[in-house]
Design a protein that fits this description.
Blueprint (H helix, E strand, L loop, with lengths): L3 H7 L5 E7 L20 E6 L7 E3 L1 H7 L6 H18 L5 E2 L6 E6 L5 E8 L3 E7 L8 E4 L6 H12 L6
Bound molecules: zinc ion.
Length: 168
């Protein structure tokens, strides 16, 4: 039976990188490199080949090896920047209890300049909601996560929504 390495050799050229993403955006999943089987990738490339159905995941080295002309440095930089922005978004120092409800709340300015009011609701689990915070217009709710036992998951989902999903 052909191994993945054999298949990769047979399809040595023609790969393209479709998208790059931070595995921590998808905390319930683990990503391994399809080409070399490296486990627990953090900065994942989603790749396609015109003669294969579906897509595969790869790490940066294999993406650069198999996708002609692909350089992952810029994508890595963008993803690291996004991760740093997420850490600032989630930083507990910015979240203050609202006077009325006691829910933790903060204002957040996304990369595109839009301002949001974000609130963490807490019962036995967490959920996050976010509203636009325009100066002279009616706020509009843009995020309403599921209840989850992981506050980080809810915050990452919210952040991805406010920052326009993908990090690269
Ligand atoms: Zn690899």
């Amino acid at each position: 039976m052909a191994t993945r390495a054999d298949i990769a050799e047979a399809f040595r050229s023609g790969w393209t990188v479709e998208t790059e993403f931070d595995a921590l955006q998808y905390r319930s999943d683990q990503f391994a490199c399809w080409f070399c089987d490296k486990q627990n990738l953090r900065w994942v490339r989603q790749m396609r080949h015109p003669r294969l159905d579906g897509f595969v995941y790869a790490g940066r080295c294999c993406a650069e090896k198999y996708a002609a002309g692909y350089h992952g440095e810029e994508a890595d930089r963008m993803m690291r920047n996004a991760d740093n922005r997420f850490k600032r978004f989630a930083d507990p120092r910015y979240w203050k209890p609202a006077a009325s409800s006691g829910n933790l709340t903060r204002m957040y300015k996304a990369a595109d300049g839009t301002r949001y009011r974000c609130t963490i609701l807490q019962k036995f689990s967490y959920k996050v909601i976010a509203w636009t915070a325009p100066k002279n217009a009616t706020p509009r709710q843009v995020v309403d996560t599921e209840w989850t036992s992981s506050l980080e998951k809810a915050l990452r989902e919210t952040f991805a929504e406010l920052e326009g999903k993908v990090t690269a």
